[in-house]
Amino acid sequence: MNFKLNKKFFSNAVFVVAIGLLIYSPTRIWLLRQIAFSPSVENVEDRVAIKNYNWELQGLNTDNINFSELKGKVVFVNFWATWCPPCRAELPMIQKLYKDYKDKVAFIFITNENWNKVATFFSKNGYNLPVYNSVSSPPNEFLKTNSIPSSFLIDKKGSVLIEKVGAADWNSKKTRAIIDEILKN
Questions:
Q1: What is the pLDDT of residue 15?
Q2: Per-residue pLDDT reduced to its tens digit, 125-134
Q3: Same-domain status, 42 and 30
Q4: Which terminal Cβ of the chain has fewer Cβ within 10 Å, N or C?
Q5: Same domain flag for 77 and 141
Q6: Residue 8 pLDDT more than 70?
């Protein structure tokens, strides 16, 4: 009887500790980072092409642009927020990708937060990603979900090769190989 009571107590204690770790934001973000996988390329028949590039973006730490300026380029678009644990989990991996590909790929990070909040977050974490607020409606192809993070990798022809909702390992060898391949075409 005493053994069962101790076993039950131990299992309950482990459960309480596990829940506590999941509630504690830094642990949750670390865990999300550990289980983030490389995003998958859309099947050819499931790919959509950007039809309307007219999308005004206000640069928070960069110049304002219209998305149409990026037509014909490889583009990485990420919708995110500083308060979002999955967003926070994938940003270190995206920052590494950005560091190596910023001269070859157009990176667009969309948030509805103000620059002061983003700047504080970036300063604390060492990020320098180009961040924008959306001034007009994004292309319909980006509006399939309201969840964040939502990320899109677009080839030079405007086809959405990768559409990923949730945290992903954007710095994986697989993702880098995909980007290298579409940069060649």
A1: 60
A2: 999 999 999 9
A3: no
A4: N
A5: yes
A6: no
Q: What is the mean pLDDT of residues 23-45?
A: 56
Q: What is the CATH number of the domain that holds 89?
A: 3.40.30.10
Domain residues for the domain of 55 are: 38-184
Packing angle of the helix pair 25-35, 2-23 (nearest 10 deg): 90
Q: Assess whether 124 and 156 both reside in one domain.
A: yes
Q: Are residues 117 and 164 in the same domain?
A: yes
Q: Are residues 114 and 82 in the same domain?
A: yes
Residue whose C-alpha is closest to residue 65's, from 30, 103, 109: 109
b/e per residue, 107-141, with b = 16+ CB within 10 A? bbbbbeeeeeebeebbeeeebebbbbbbeeebbeb
- Six-digit token string for 30: 């670390």
Contact between residue 128 and residue 119 where contact means Cβ atoms under 8 Å apart: no
Whether residue 113 contacts residue 119, with contact meaning beta carbons closer than 8 Å, is answered with no
Kindly state the DSSP code that residue 71 receives in the 8-state scheme. Answer: T
Residue 145: predicted pLDDT: 83
pLDDT, tens digit (0-9, with 9 covering 90-100), for 56-94:
999 999 999 999 999 999 999 999 999 999 999 999 999
